[in-house]
Specification:
The chain is of the alpha+beta class. It has two domains: 3-143, no CATH class; 180-337, Heat Shock Protein 90. The two termini are 32 Å apart. The radius of gyration is 36 Å and the shape is rod-shaped. The chain has helices spanning 3-22, 34-57, 60-64, 68-96, 108-177, 183-199, 208-223, 251-260, 294-297, 303-315; strands at 206-207, 232-238, 244-245, 270-277, 280-288, 320-327, 330-337.
Length: 340
């Protein structure tokens, strides 16, 4: 918590509990005895010292280390000392400074009142200390959580890029090995993809249009190695401009469809649909799958899908729905993101 805020809280507290109760004594309609004014001033000074003795001597660490005996000893000592000062000190001030002819007597009710006053400001000191420490701790935890999430997201992005690059280079190696005429086109598409990965994926979010263009390049690259024309169908609906999305968020689903989907099926063997409605994006992709196996039955099989699920949890907590499951002879993925 900023120091200015802490200072403001303390000032408000003392205005409320010290200045306001003394307001009647500054009005000229009544004449109060001098000893009573000195008594109140002395009491307020003791309140101030009582409060800050607790505030600075008791710390949250004492409770965290479960030093309860030490805490009780400190509190008992503070209450005893300031109760004694209140009982005797205020009367000595009233007698000697205010020139009272007779020292006021000490009664049991007076002792109890002073003990209650000391206990009251001791409690105020503890509450103030814990309130400020709690808010400061919560702010620190929020900052640490934000740093942790930022670091984790950066790590997830570095995991995704090599994973994708590894699969793409394998495909390129296969084409070069076969001396395919489409190898130069693959290199060009790979260059476009790498440019996006190197210069845009470091940002927390990128324009949705850029992500879609990246998907198109990826699909065209994959289409080059599949004999069936228009094997993958891509459909974009709604207004995609001025919408932002985390980079490389959708590509693992498309990559997974190419990796695990059946290739010996009529077009389209893979269908991708992106529908933007206001601040909500609906993404859906399906592909034909082989007989159920470990990769098809496990909805988060592979590094890519696990990373996407984790990134969604970090960036859209409570604002997304992800469904990954076989659907008959197809494997279906549905993703809804709100507050795009």
């Amino acid at each position: 918590m900023p120091r200015k805020t802490i200072l403001l809280i303390h000032c408000c507290f003392w205005i409320l509990f010290s200045l306001v109760p003394e307001l009647p004594y500054i009005f000229p309609d009544r004449k109060y005895p001098l000893w009573l004014i000195h008594y109140n001033i002395t009491t307020e000074c003791l309140n101030f010292m009582n409060f800050y003795a607790v505030y600075f001597l008791i710390t949250v660490n004492h409770f965290q280390r479960k030093e309860y005996l030490r805490i009780m000893s400190i509190l008992f000592g503070i209450i005893l000392i300031f109760s004694t000062l209140r009982v005797f000190g205020t009367r000595m001030v009233s007698h000697y400074i205010s020139m009272m002819e007779e020292l006021p007597g000490i009664r049991f009710v007076n002792v109890m009142v002073e003990i209650v006053n000391s206990l009251l400001f001791t409690t105020f000191g503890i509450l103030m200390k814990f309130m400020i420490d709690w808010f400061s701790t919560q702010k620190l935890k929020a900052e640490l959580l934000a740093q942790k999430q930022s670091s984790e997201l950066a790590l997830l992005r570095t995991q995704i890029n090599p994973h994708f690059l590894f699969n793409t280079l394998n495909n390129l190696y296969s084409l070069v090995y076969k001396k395919s005429d489409v190898a130069p086109s693959v290199v060009m598409k790979l260059s476009e993809i790498m440019r996006y990965m190197l210069y845009d994926t470091n940002a927390e979010k990128v324009p949705l249009d850029k992500e879609i263009n990246y998907l198109r390049s990826f699909i065209e690259l994959q289409q080059l190695r599949i004999r069936v024309d228009n094997f993958i169908h891509l459909e974009i609906r709604g207004e995609t401009s001025d919408r932002m999305i985390p980079p490389m968020l959708l590509i693992p689903f498309v990559e997974n469809a190419f990796k695990h989907g059946k290739k010996d099926v009529p077009a389209p063997g893979i269908s991708v649909m992106i529908d933007v409605d206001g601040d909500t994006m609906h993404f859906e992709i399906w592909n034909y799958c082989s007989m159920p196996n470990s990769s098809a039955t496990d909805p988060y099989h592979g590094i890519g899908l696990k990373n996407v699920a984790r990134r969604l949890q970090l960036m859209y907590p409570g604002a997304h729905e992800l469904s990954v499951a076989p659907c008959g002879e197809k494997f279906l993925v549905k993703l809804n993101i709100r507050s795009l």
